[in-house]
Amino acid sequence: MAVWFTVFFLAPIIIIVVYSFLKKDPYGGVLPEFSLAAYSSLANPNFVIVTVRTLAVSGIATVITILIALPCGYYMARSKYQTFLLLLIIIPFWTNFLIRVFAWMNILGNDGFLNDLLLRLGIISDYIPFLYNQRAIILVLVYMYLPYAILPLFSTIDKFDFSLLEAARDLGATKLGAINQVMLPNIKSGIYAAVLFTFIPILGAYAVPLLVGGHDSYMLGNVIADQLRKARNWPLSSAISLVLTVITTFGIIVMLNLQRKEAKSKSDMSGMDEKENHDTGGRLAAEGGKVEL
After folding, report:
1. Which pLDDT belongs to residue 69?
2. Which of the two residues, 261 and 13, has the higher pLDDT score?
3. ∠ CA 137-145-255, rounded to 5°
4. Residue 78 Cα distances to 74, 185, 194, 229, angstroms
5. 30 backbone dihedrals φ, ψ, rounded to 5°
């Protein structure tokens, strides 16, 4: 395991870190000279705009994905057709990623299925530009990464004791209130996993913004690819990749700390309950002894 992580995780990270501090070779690659030019380029206002746009699109797409995945995971966990529903979730993985993107381009295009349907029904008189904008990027990203959110949520919700919801309803809670106050706090681990499985790959998305985005949809993944393929600026692309790595690592650390604090609080509460039960049991035993005497 140590060799695996060293070769396939630690070594590439070290290469990216080292390249980001080297000088750009005019013919491509790097020169063995220390330089901070790549990091000084990150202060460019255009790069800041792209970074903010990437974070905004990734955050919106992740939130929408989680909001859709939660009821889907809940329904699958309560359904008696779990195997069939899981199959429906996995089926999109059987097709190529690019084929699915091109399918959405055929649906959203000016001459695509959606515009053609709306024109035939007389709802619109001219086509609507569904494609080549940020809305199209968010829609396609949500579709692409929705299974990554549904599967961990389903796995967590399936282990949840649904009798707790019935108890909450008996105590006067509404159905939505019972879900918010009882179920959601107990499936936080699944929500954290779903957020990580969607936000991190969306943050570095390249193909979707390139194919369905417009001039205002340039994201960090596209910047990295252009700096490698067109500008041949390896240090700058490494510096941008390192920034993305730091952002995702920070997010993972925050979520792990939240999970650790939640687990600690539950452990403390269970310990207090056990102590209280022990004291109560001892007191009842003493009282019983007195009565027996």
Report:
1. 95
2. 13
3. 110
4. 6, 18, 19, 49
5. -135, 160
CB 277 within 8 A of CB 285: no
CA 213 from centroid of its chain's CA atoms:
20
pLDDT in tens, 239-289: 999 988 888 888 788 878 877 877 777 666 665 555 555 555 555 445 554
What is the predicted pLDDT for the residue at 268?
A: 63
**Could you tell me the CATH superfamily of domain 2-292?**
MetI-like (1.10.3720.10)
Torsion of CA 276, 280, 283, 285, to 10 degrees: -130
Helix 188-203 and helix 45-78: axis angle, to 10°? 140
Residue 63 backbone zone (phi > 0: left; psi -120 to 50: alpha; other: beta): alpha
Structure tokens at 106: 């055929």
User: Where do the DSSP E strands lie in 20-90?
Assistant: 22-24, 30-34
For the chain, give percent helix, strand, coil, nearest 5: 75, 5, 20
Give the Cα separation of 157 and 165 in Å (integer). 12
CB 241, CB 224: distance < 8 Å: yes
Maximum C-alpha span of the chain: 97
